[in-house]
Structure formats: structure tokens, C-alpha cells
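Exam review. A common question shows you a sequence with its C-alpha cells and asks you to describe the fold in words. Practice with the pair below. Do the first one on your own.
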Amino acid sequence: MAQKNIYPKRVSRNLSVPEKGSGKTPTFCSNFYRLRSKFINILMKSGKKTKAHKIFSLGVMKAPIALIRAIENVKPVVEVIKKPLGRKIIEIPSLIKPLRQESLAIRWILEGVRKRSAPISNSLLSEVKDALSLMGYARKKRDLLHKKVEASRINVRFSRFPTSPKKVLASANDVTLHLIKVRHSNPYSRSGKDSGAA
């Protein structure tokens, strides 16, 4: 007689995570709670999550719409990646995935907060207000990155989705639109489903 297996089956930890391309659109509340947990985790130092949660609550917990709009204003769309070409290292424009866009925006906001001399909760609120009005440290970092993309726009021909030799890209916005258009038109690209709205 075969002996029964008394050990429970291993359950995957990712059962509650929806699959990519499942068609489920996140609601405002789910989006805010996800951004809140990400914000608190990046703000946390030395494992002091309760302290980070308190700072977040005193700063921007009462204005969730302002926080989401501030992150949207600060999110970069394109970046430059360094790639060796012969004996040189060139900077090639590349699209940023949506989750990395959020992470960069939150990091830049917190860098601006730590550069201020006021209490951290007040500084967080001030930095979010500046980001809403397209100002502040985080917005400057985004504009600086887009200027770097604009300066290296000639190197788009070395990317995975090159331009034609006769096509001239005038600005960072043109680089973004070109990369999005060619990525979505390429059926063999792995990240063809990624959306990189400008």
C-alpha cells in the first residue's frame, strides 16, 4: 500500500499578483496604495518603517491626488544608457519602463526633501507642491535627464530600434515618440506591450 504524502504542497507566493496583460485596470485607490507603499519603502532608513509611515502621514497622506499628480509630473520617459562601441563608450537614448519611472520620480522627490532645512514632513509637502507646479529639485532632475537625451539623440541609430539615416530627431520628445512607435510596431520585441506615454 502506497504511503500518503503528509506534507502540504508548496504554494507560490505570487498567486495574488495579477498576470501581465490580464486586462485588469487598476483603480485610483489601488494605484494610490501601491504608490504609498513604494514611497514609504524608499523613504525608510535602517528598517524604521513606522517612522517612515508617520512622516508620510504628516506630509502628504491627506492629499493623495496631489501626490499622484506630482509623481506624474516628475516621471522621466526616456534615459540614456552607456554602451561600449569600439574603444569609446557612447550614450544611447532608451525608453524607461513604467515601474522604473515611478521609482526614479520618488527617489528624486526624496532627494529634494533631504536637501531642505525644514522638518522632513514639511519639506515633503513643499516638494510635492513644487512638483505640482512643475518646479523643484525633482523636476529639474527630470529636465536635466531629458536634455541629456536630446544631446545624444544622434546615437538613436545604435539602439535596438534605430532610426533611418535621413530622419533627424530634433528634441527629446521626438526621440520618445520614435522609440514608442518603433517598439510597438516591432512584433519580436520582448517589451512590446510596455506603454511609455509621454
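Now try the second one, then compare your answer with the model answer below.
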Amino acid sequence: MTSPSRVLKSVGPKLVPFFKSVAVYFVLFIPVDKPSVWAMFVKCAPILSLMVFVLLHGMSLGDEYMFSRRILIGLIFSCLGDALLVWPHYFLHGMGAFSVAQVFYIKAFGFESLKPLLTVPLYGGALYVVSILLPHTSDVYTIGVPVYGVLLTTMVWRAIARVRFSRNQWTWTEICSCIGGMFFAISDGIIGFDRFLQTVPYSQLLIMTTYYMAQVGIALSVVDSSSVYKLSLQSQLKAETDDTVSSIIAGMNVSSDTDEAFVSKAKWNSHDVREQVAVHQHSKHD
């Protein structure tokens, strides 16, 4: 496992723009009831810097960067959602953009390790929250809120499930995406209560703090994604090679056994023939 000091030296400088833009956001702290293009830019700047962060860790159309591409697309739609949510009448559109972001995060985290037991508390908690919010929604939100809740919960499930706790093979990037997923749920939960139920004190501060923590955690998961893919490919290739070698050896053993049986049978048949000839000659002599 990579030491924290090496991680800070390699990753830290690339995150400087993110932390600076987050600092600018909280210093200016433009109230949500004063939407403007400037407010949109200040809000979106940290996510834009995370996009650059992902690109700095490599990007191509190859399979080794499939994880990074999906995280990048998720960030792009998140940034679009941030921009739309600056204006309250675009809330539904913003929720749609974040729904697409959740889909790409889910695709990035994958379903390799299911860990179905996690679904009980996660979906149970989501169902409880939706049941509280749903009576206070109307029109398309009656469908939109549950659908987004399912997508968000699935993303959190996959973010937690990818951490290999049982085999003690977890990496710090897996922990980051796990924490990021949970903070995303907290941030969106506060948004839901603040918009549909009642005003939450310091909602803007709480929402944006947890949201930026969520996105940076998810973005950090790309740091070793290409190397993990290559290691996985090497392990798969080694396993396939071992299977092929085992099959060849087994085939050779079967062939050897068959040859021995054939030779033994031939010797036995030859012995029978010699005995029959001897008997025939003896009877003829008599």
C-alpha cells in the first residue's frame, strides 16, 4: 500500500486548484437566493478543477481508462447540475443532470463485488427518507424523487462494496470513493429536506461542504485506476495461461495412458496369436 507521504507528494499539487476554488466559494458565499452567472461560475469552479485533476491522471479511449472516463462524465453532468440548481426554477433539470451523473458513477464502480447485505440498510434508509419527503412533493417530483433516490442509493452501495475489507486488499482510493459516496447521500438528503419538508439551518453551508467532499473523494478514485486495471489484466492472463498449461498436461497424461493401454493390448493379442499357432501346429503334428 502506498504511503501517505508519497500520496501527498504526487496527488496534493494537482488538487491545489480545487482547494483554492472551494476557498473562494466559501469566502464569497453568495446566497442561494441571489442567482447569477457569477454565482454559477463560483459554484462550478471546484468541479471544473476536479475534471482537470482526472485528466491529469491520464485519459484515452483504451480500456485501462474506462474507469476514469466514466468518473469524468459523471463530473461533467454534476457540473451541469450545479449550474442549473443555481436557479430554483431549473431544479428538476438539475436533478435530471445529477441522475445521469449517478448512472456513470455506478458504471465506474461496477458490480464485481456485490455484497448484497449492504442493500438492506442502504435501501431501507432510502425508503424511509423518500416516504417522509414524498407526501410533500407534487407533479413530476412524485416520480422523480424516488427514481433519483434509487440511483443515489445504488451509487453509494457500489462505492462501499468495491472496498475489499474482507481480503485486506483495500486501497486508499477505494476508501476515498466510499467516503465520497456517503457524503453525496448526506448532501442530497439535506437538499431534499430543505426543499420539500422544512428549512434546514445553515443548509447552504452543510450542503456544499458535504458535496465538495463527496466529489473530491470520488475524483480521487481515478488515481490508481489504470494500474489496477493492468494488474487485473495480468492476473486474468496468468490464470488463463495456468488453465491452458493444466489442460495440455492433462491431455498428455491421457494420451500417455492410452498409448500404454494400446501397447499392452497389442502385446496380449500377440501372445494369444502365438499360443493359437502353437496349438494348431501341435494338433497337426499329432
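Model answer, second protein: Residues 10-223 form one domain. The chain has a mean pLDDT of 88. Full marks require stating both points clearly.
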